[in-house]
Amino acid sequence: MTSFQLTRTLDEHAADSALRSDVSEGLGHTPKVLPPKWFYDARGSELFEEITRLPEYYPTRAEREILLERAGEIAAVSGARTLVELGSGSSEKTRHLIEAMPALDMYVPVDVSESALRGAADTLLAEHPGLRVHALLADFTRALRLPDSPGPRLVVFLGGTIGNLLPPERAAFLASVRAMLSPGDALLMGTDLVKDESVLVAAYDDASGVTAEFNKNVLAVVNRELDADFHTADFEHVALWNREQEWIEMRLRARSELVVKVRALDLVVPFAEGEEILTEVSAKFRQEGVRKELAAAGLELTQWWTDTGGRFALSLSVAEGPLG
Questions:
Q1: I need a labelling partner for 297 at 20 to 30 A (CA). Which of 184, 256, 261, 311 fits?
Q2: Looking at per-residue confidence, does 93 or 66 come out higher?
Q3: pLDDT by residue (tens digit) across 125-165?
Q4: What whole-number distance in Å separates Cα of residue 294 and Cα of residue 162?
Q5: Do the beta carbons of residue 282 and residue 250 sit within 8 Å?
Q6: How far apart are the C-alpha atoms of 6 and 120, rounded to whole Å?
Q7: pTM as predicted
Q8: How far is CA 68 from CA 55, 60, 102, in A?
Q9: Concatenated DSSP letters of 232-273
């Protein structure tokens, strides 16, 4: 017997309120900032899927390689009977884990898109009779209350999304994950690794211009949702490697002096020629740095797997003892 349950923790106006707040604060900030989560409307999601197939963009292929190679080992080491996925989307990559977990009782996908949650659940329940799916319509960057489910639990956070969080945000996020876990539960996390600058920059500035279109899509979202008058041609896509911080920065650079109106917010935003909007930070990691950040949150790194090229890593860390 299959079962599906959905718990909503976001009201229907949450996304609109968050967008208004982020645009108002971000475009009034110096330097200007727009968070990367606003890339992902329907068009942005299509563009990102296209990006994952580009020859320059290695992370998705590298992570999939690890999952295909190590799914059985991850299942055995974790012993998980409940699988929780943060930012689950289509749950496509997670299927490799679910197929390797015959004892899995419950899958808990967490996402802000109800349509994605329902679509993924339909597919998984058709493939795995007996699996229970309890979806959470929620923002994983906020504290979550997980449904009652059998342990051990394995929380998965894939795709290198942890790199989109700044260090204080990462610390808060990892602490919130630890708070969900009981002793013996584990976190499986994907991290893109530090490598040659040319490889990194190419992954975020592909020759065919798909990433540039994806970056500019945030302006189209603001135009549509907040009645703004950005012209994407007025902005240049910029991707650069910050050596000191060891992260990629994506920016949109004004080609000339201009003024943008955001009518829904009664906001007038001037740009100087060359002025930029920071749209994404994507941190790259080293094993010892990941170990330290996990330890600071009360998680012990116990397993570290990379693809054959050493480009990407999946780490398994375990919650030990009660929270202090």
A1: 311
A2: 66
A3: 999 988 999 999 998 888 888 999 999 999 999 999 999 99
A4: 12
A5: yes
A6: 12
A7: 0.94
A8: 20, 12, 16
A9: GGGEEEEEEEETTTTEEEEEEEESS-EEEEEGGGTEEEEE-T
Q: Confirm if 253 and 235 have CB atoms less than 8 A apart.
A: yes
Contacts of 39 (CB under 8 A, 6+ apart): 47, 48, 214, 215, 217, 218, 221, 279, 280
Do the strands 247-254 and 82-86 form a parallel or antiparallel pair, or are they unpaired?
unpaired
Strands (E), the chain: 3-8, 32-33, 82-86, 106-111, 132-137, 153-157, 186-192, 235-242, 247-254, 258-262, 267-271, 276-283, 299-306, 312-319
User: What count of other Cβ atoms lies within 10 Å of the Cβ of residue 317?
Assistant: 27
SS3 35: coil
45 contacts 119 by C-beta, under 8 angstroms: no
Residues 162-187: pLDDT tens digits? 999 999 999 999 999 999 999 999 99
Distance CA 168, CA 247 (A): 15
- Closest CA relative to residue 116, chosen from 6, 9, 14, 251: 6
- The answer to whether 107 and 133 are in contact (CB under 8 A) is yes
Tokens 């375990």, residue? 318
Q: How far apart are CA 66 and CA 63, in angstroms?
A: 5
Report whether the peptide linkage leading into residue 147 is cis, meaning its omega lies within 30 degrees of zero: no
